[in-house]
TrEMBL record, chains A, B:
Source organism superkingdom: Eukaryota
Alliinase C-terminal domain ranges (all copies): 142-496
PANTHER family linked to this entry: BIFUNCTIONAL ASPARTATE AMINOTRANSFERASE AND GLUTAMATE/ASPARTATE-PREPHENATE AMINOTRANSFERASE-RELATED, TRYPTOPHAN AMINOTRANSFERASE-RELATED PROTEIN 2
Cofactors named for this entry: pyridoxal 5'-phosphate
InterPro entries linked to this entry: Alliinase_C (IPR006948), Alliinase_N_sf (IPR037029), Ethylene_sulfur-biosynth (IPR050478), PyrdxlP-dep_Trfase (IPR015424), PyrdxlP-dep_Trfase_major (IPR015421), PyrdxlP-dep_Trfase_small (IPR015422)
Pfam families: Alliinase_C
SUPFAM superfamilies with a match to the protein in the record: PLP-dependent transferases
Family: Belongs to the alliinase family.
One Gene Ontology term of the molecular function aspect: transaminase activity
UniProt keyword annotation of Transferase present: yes
Protein name (database record): Alliinase C-terminal domain-containing protein
Keywords: Aminotransferase, Pyridoxal phosphate, Transferase
BP terms from Gene Ontology: amino acid metabolic process
Length: 502, 502
């Protein structure tokens, strides 16, 4: 009787437990159902995306060969050997090095603005290079950072964000903060990451969040120019400068500021704002202020000042420092950037700009960015509980190194181009000495090729001409951050490229 | 032996089953961990928010009494009876009707801009009304729509969005679309919702997404003015107009356009752009173009043209129509708006503006907005599988109706104010005749009270003065969309308000 009774109650418990398991399985399946749904959206987009985008990247310094070799071993199975690239099928499609390369407002709609744009018809990617390409809806996007997808796919669920319908409905994030639309969680992760990488001073600074660093750039101009005089303040930047800056300065015909061109030739005795991008876009060099006078204000764009691109020699310490997830983590679609600002009044005015421009910044994107930055920090913290082989900066440093190495070899093989030679420096974050390996390759056509963009277009490779950066058309800019498949196809073509005198 | 053996194996199975239970619980807890984390941010904010925000709403037409009674029954247990409001404890705190009411750029920083702003010190909400309040970081947010939280909390998990770390990384959404950063899923839900509600023609139109309708408003001005002449095009709007518009037009000192004030007094023989908000902010009336001449272009802001606010008499059919989730679903923090645009070139130029302004719009917010709009559509589709008592528009229509009824009663009781009398109209969506019940109450102080804002401030109720809308300071604007607790406390105070001649 005793054993029978005991057996019966255990059976009951077992039945209950199994029923509970069934319920938990169903609940877990539901929790993941929506995730699958949104994944489908993503994969659907990827499938469309492939035929549209191609990219190349080039490199010159031979000292990277050893690093690239290590990189090849490091992130198996993503390494591509020279022979595997040669085996690629080339279907003769157009490779777009600059993705939606256009100079901004079209000539027909913005008289007086940048007029010589490069167009491609979205709906028909066949390109007859003897005719000017047909006009299209332009855009000016520099380097879709889809190279980073691989890392984040491998990172798995730890960066998944779940947002309920009732969350983040209010306009307001932290009403006690100067930047009232800044999500505290996001600010916390920004500061943590800067402390880990050591690429910016944050102590005593104000964080302002923006819809990408592009919006923050405009906020900075607004904040600095409003203190100014009765005439628009001059905005300068040393050539070659990020072409998009000029368009952003000019498109509103603002009375607050005006584009005044090359910083190196600016010698007017009046207030100015100098824009410094370091590493620079397009050529990749580290930059210092050029205009050496009083009365000037500086805006630093540190989009690329991260250890996968360049040695972190010291924490940046400037009045206004701009960063973006687009280039640090690769999440361009999130539209999140941040500014580290020294002066409180400047931070207030930048906040005011964003209030008037878009009444703040998406809370959803900030929450997601916080999650992503946290994952980057967790993966890369010295002395932290770092998963083997998953340090975000290390993984992507090696990936970029390999790409530069492959392109350098291809350039050698072709004999038609050159790329900048970067000085080596010691990186305090990764404890290695290396040369900058920028997100863009600044390629120069040598010899008889005067117009590099045209030459490459003749090979169905679309690039962005140096003239958009205020320099000679012998230069072109090429993004290094596209997906592997695009990049490798370009390498293949580059190797076989020869200059034909016809 | 048999029973003993049988008992032993059942026990083993039980142990295994319980172990599985534990594992599944942990997994489910993890899946929800991130959700809880973001909820904590939200609830933490709510806890801070409560002491900071109070709001009132007022109403006049007695014909709404019956509807309000029905509304009280409809969405139990959210109804508040007159006696339950009287029983509220009033701790004498400041009720902010306008939440962060400020007129935009502060006088000290923007000479020549709107100078007479109302300030409150974030860090110290005690207010001495005999002294001007201390300046603070201003903002100009009209009506944080937190009233909608309740509906979305009750909606549960169907509106939960899950975004993985590798999703939506690219700048691009659909590269074949004119608006290349527009998420197709979001566009689909926009069109579906407009078709269900019948409040806008979408056939043959272009959808442009923006970081809130504020950004789209600027995109529209950019798109329309660039075709213009050598001088800035005039922007007009009939008073009382949405005060924020003027600040948005002026803050960049754009050479493309300029604020030209009241539409009713505009009689210059040159191109102009007229802004029409309908229902209007602040007074709630439906609007038509005022300037009746050729050479004009119209921008329609239909933020409030939804059936919880006003009868849908016909699908809006204009060249540029702006909408926002902030006021339709209550998700202000998402920063999502959309424009329905007739002309392709205008849509292209609006797209170009947003490209230059912020290189597109957050993909995360678009995905979330798609989910929310889908839930609204699912809940409100005639003939669809609609859950009883969960039609989004019905639930919130009744909620707003009750609020207006309560405030009307309170106004009667006080005898110091009046509110607009709205004409009744038949709503084709909800098949009922009713009067507009706007998101803002446009309150007028009667009798000896010349400055309504000051009078109410003396009762520790902060409102937005009519002078910010281009009319007499006898008027104030009050948001109807705050949380229940804030709103009810204001009702209580309003009832007891009397004019003291001291």
């Amino acid at each position: 009787m005793g054993k029978g009774f005991e057996g019966l109650s255990v059976r009951h418990l077992l039945v209950l437990s199994v029923a509970l398991n069934v319920g938990l399985f169903l609940k877990l399946a539901y929790e993941r159902e929506v995730n699958f749904g949104t994944e489908q959206i993503f994969h659907g987009f990827c499938a469309e995306e492939e035929p549209h985008q191609r990219e190349i990247s080039l490199f010159s310094s031979s000292s990277m060969a050893a690093n690239a070799e290590k990189a090849s071993n490091y992130f198996h199975p993503s390494s591509w050997s020279a022979s595997s690239i040669d085996e690629l099928d080339d279907d003769g499609r157009i490779i777009n090095l600059d993705q939606w390369n256009s100079g901004g407002p079209t000539a027909s709609t913005q008289a007086g603005h940048i007029s010589d744009d490069i167009y491609i018809n979205h709906h028909d990617l066949t390109l007859n290079v003897s005719l000017p390409p047909p006009p299209r809806v332009g855009s000016n996007i520099s380097g879709d950072p889809t190279m980073y997808e691989r890392y984040w796919q491998q990172a798995g669920d730890k960066t998944t964000v779940v947002i309920s319908g009732w969350q983040s409905m209010s306009y307001f994030s932290d009403v006690r903060n100067l930047c009232w639309f800044l999500e505290p969680e996001f600010a916390k992760e920004v500061i943590r990451l800067h402390n880990i990488v050591g690429n910016a001073i944050t102590e005593g600074r104000h964080i302002v969040v923006g819809t990408g660093s592009t919006q923050l750039f405009q906020a900075a101009l607004y904040a600095l120019s409003s203190y100014g005089a009765n005439e628009p303040i001059s905005i300068v930047s040393a050539t070659p400068y990020y072409s998009f800056y000029r368009q952003v300065v000019e498109y509103m015909k603002s009375g607050l500021y005006q584009w005044a061109g090359d910083a190196s030739s600016f010698n007017e005795d009046k207030p100015y704002i100098e824009l410094i991008t370091s590493p620079n876009n397009p050529d990749g060099f580290m930059r210092q202020p050029i205009v050496n006078r009083t009365g000037g204000m500086l805006v630093h764009d540190f989009a690329y000042y991260w250890p996968q691109y360049t040695p972190i020699t010291s924490p940046a310490d400037h009045d206004i420092m701009l960063f973006t997830v687009s280039k640090s983590t690769g999440h361009a679609g999130m539209r999140i950037g941040w500014a580290v600002v020294k002066d409180e009044d400047v931070a207030k005015r930048m906040t005011k700009f964003i209030e008037l421009n878009s009444i703040g910044v998406s809370k959803d994107s900030q929450l997601r960015a916080a999650k992503i930055l946290q994952a980057v920090s967790d993966s890369s913290e010295h002395g932290g509980d770092v998963e083997e082989g998953r340090n975000f900066f290390e993984v992507n440093y090696h990936l970029i190194a390999e790409r530069w190495n492959q392109l350098r070899e291809a350039v050698k093989q072709s004999g038609l181009f050159s790329t900048p030679a970067f000085p080596a420096a010691f990186c305090n974050y990764s404890n290695r000495t290396f040369r900058t390996q920028p997100a863009f390759a600044w390629l120069k056509c040598e010899g008889k090729i005067d117009d590099c963009e045209s030459f490459l277009r003749g090979h169905k490779i679309l690039t962005r001409s140096g003239k958009h950066f205020g320099v000679s058309p012998q230069y072109v800019r090429i993004s290094m951050l596209d997906r592997d498949s695009n990049y490798h196809l370009f390498i293949k073509r580059l190797r076989g490229m020869r200059y034909n005198l016809e």
